[in-house]
Design brief:
- With 124 residues, the chain is mainly β.
- The protein contains 1 helix and 10 strands; from the N terminus they run E-H-E-E-E-E-E-E-E-E-E.
- The protein has one domain: Sandwich (Jelly Rolls).
- It has a 6-stranded mixed β-sheet with strand order 1-2-3-10-5-8. The chain has a 4-stranded antiparallel β-sheet with strand order 4-9-6-7, with no helix packed on it.
- The longest helix has 6 residues.
Length: 124
Amino acid sequence: MTDQGTEPRITVADAMAIDLGPWTDKPDDLGPDMRALVLWRAPDSAAITGVWECDPGTFRVDFGPAGEFAQFLAGHVTCRSDDGDSFELREGDVMTFVPGWSGEWTAHSRLRKIYCTFVPGPMR
């Protein structure tokens, strides 16, 4: 994952065209190759924004104590949560994955999203 660490402002056109750096294998080697570019990170890492992309394939997702807000820019994915819910997301869809969400994603085509991960805490 590349960390840009600069101005967090980005347009959809920019997010589609921006170079995310080299492809990397999933750590468990069971899923598709992926890459990401971190655009901004809070000093305490309680919030991180970026652009993420993966090739078609099936892989596990576990947000742990964090959640994620994402807008899907390209592709089609089926998400199956560990509690049995299943839903599909496509280009233009927006989704909030609540803290602790875990399950399986099947990317049917190359998937690209902009995201903001967050760790809940008191409002300041």
